[in-house]
Amino acid sequence: MARKTKKTSQEFEYKAEMKQMLHLIIHSLYTNKEIFLRELISNASDALNRIRFRMLTDKDVLDADAELCIRIKVDKDKHILSISDSGAGMTREDLIERIGTVASSGTLEFVKQLQDQGSQINAEMIGQFGVGFYSVFMVTDEVVLETRAADKDSQAYRWKSDGGGKFTIEEIEKAERGTTISFKLKKEAWEFAEDYRVKHIINKYSNFVDFPVYIGEEKANTVEALWHKPKDDIKEEDLNEFYKFISNDYQEPLAHLQLNLEGAVNFKALLFIPGTAPLTFYRNPDDFDSVHLYSNKIFIQDNCKELLPEYLRFFKGVVDTEDLPLNVSREVTQSSPVMAKIKNTLTSKILAFLKDLGKKEPEKFEKFSKNFGPLFKSGVNSDFNNRDKIIELLRFESTKTEPGKSISLKEYVRRMGEEQKEIYFISGDHREALEKNPKLEYFKKNDIEVLLLSEPIDVFIVPSINEYDKKALKSIDKADLDLSADNSKDSGEELNEDLAKSLIEVFKETLGDKVEDVVASKRLVGSAVTLVSGKDGMDSQMEKMMKMMNQGFSGSKRILEVNLRHGVIKNLSRLNLAGSTDPLLRKTILQLYESAELLEGNLQSPNDFVARMTELLQEATKA
Ligand code: ADP
């Protein structure tokens, strides 16, 4: 029974962030107004799932026997729409905390950023931002929500808002559990007071709601668990609609995988790779709603983290098992050995599926790799049981792929020349900069392919692979490369040994402890110098990342390689012959060293660099 205490209505102000969000929704959404109905039905369905889940273990709730359903009433003449559910309802705190706030922090800034960039904010995106309820203000000026939570002694409330700055809450009498949302449609939205229009929207977006949706007395949806149907009976269209329904995505999925496993572990699964990474995927990975867990067609939990290893959590979909106990609770899903078994089986099935996708639909695989590679690749270092399989699925751009296209290590090895013993890679911020790196000169000249690693994750995983198909993976940033191909052809005369030795001594003296060593280079063709790491040193990109993450990290010293065929080096040798203390000689050496630092994005003092360059220019332009 509802308590009889009657208080007057209390007024609340939305937080500033919410107000701005509301303003945005009402005024700036590129509108597809019908979305509001999908959002309200989806909220009702969530509330029904919550009460059904609670009743698995606790039948002592208000209206324990009520039908779990959604009822929509349409008053065509008065243009009033109401949507009721017999779900879990809301307490006063829920109304204040959940309805009055933007769920995920930073959402507003993110939406604004999108807008500033000139992106059209599509109403269909609203579900992704966790403010779906407010889409109702696209079609009405005032919403009344009446709700009563499931505890037998709960109080019922009426919440009201015009979508401006405020909302009110008052205590009311309401006998049944659940929530009713009602509102008068704005004139331009009168179409939604037509039965056929509402039915059409339900068929389009809400056909997969797990509970009956009634319009008047008529059931408007076909309640079915799609993943229980045999593969051949499911149409592509149904799959796409189902995906959109469970994912809040408005685009089609990239690919899907359906499983029906019986034996040591029993479960059915219907999983999808999204067409693109959702806008907030890499920003708030924890908000990404991955796989839903069902037990015998009953919804147990959304975003069930126990079902998939982290590096596969870009999949969306459902897993339904008969193996969990009937009174399953969250604690059970966290500790059950059944869950661990499902996770193992799912992981190997997914990896096999991805392998297949790579073979049969390389273009789709490429898309997957581009969108979700940054997460997927981390599996190399976190899932040791499947490491080899994951490595086969990695894709990288290379000096021989077009920008945006990538290859596997297998493909790389297949195209290697006979005399090539190692797999080469170079890492940096983006492809264009990498392609101009002097260290590539030798490889270009000798037609040797080099992998171009430009994703931050790459520097953490690739060096850890060590070997593929018995070939070592080597950063061409390292000094100990086996560069046996002849580099002397058409690159001019090299300095003779004595002159070279003497000049390198001057380099060492001038640079002092800025470098670990100075050596003659085998890899440079058109550039005068480059910096590389010692045998045990880190790859330069890796070192840069470490410095970014850890302020105290100082890194190791680098080795300067000098191109003994280069004009400027030969000039320096001449100056050296005349006198090794010539200031021009010393200045040029420092300038060359800092140019190499600059190219790596590691220049310590741009001021000194520019001042010295100006001096050198003055020298060079002397009449
Ligand atoms: P989201 O559904 O993404 O969390 P919404 O703005 O649509 O964002 O809803 C906010 C919250 O309000 C929901 O998470 C839920 O807790 C609550 N809510 C909305 N509608 C209902 C309903 N019909 N029954 C119970 N709770 C609801």
Just give the CATH class of the largest domain.
Answer: Mainly Alpha
Strand arrangement, major sheet: 1-6-5-4-7-3-2-8-9
| Second rung of CATH, namely the architecture of the largest domain | Up-down Bundle
Largest sheet, described in full?
A: 9 strands, mixed
Describe the structure.
This protein is an alpha+beta fold and 623 residues long. It folds into three domains: 217 residues, Histidine kinase-like ATPase, C-terminal domain (Heat Shock Protein 90, 2-Layer Sandwich); 144 residues, Ribosomal Protein S5, domain 2, CATH 3.30.230; 224 residues, Heat shock protein 90, C-terminal domain (Four Helix Bundle (Hemerythrin (Met), subunit A), Up-down Bundle). It is 36% helix and 18% strand. The protein has 20 helices and 22 strands. Strand 12 and strand 13 form a beta hairpin. Helix 8 packs across helix 9, helix 16 packs across helix 19 and helix 19 packs across helix 20. The radius of gyration is 32 Å and the shape is elongated. The model has no long low-confidence stretch (mean pLDDT 88). Bound molecules: adenosine-5'-diphosphate. The site of adenosine-5'-diphosphate has 17 residues, from helix 2 and helix 3.
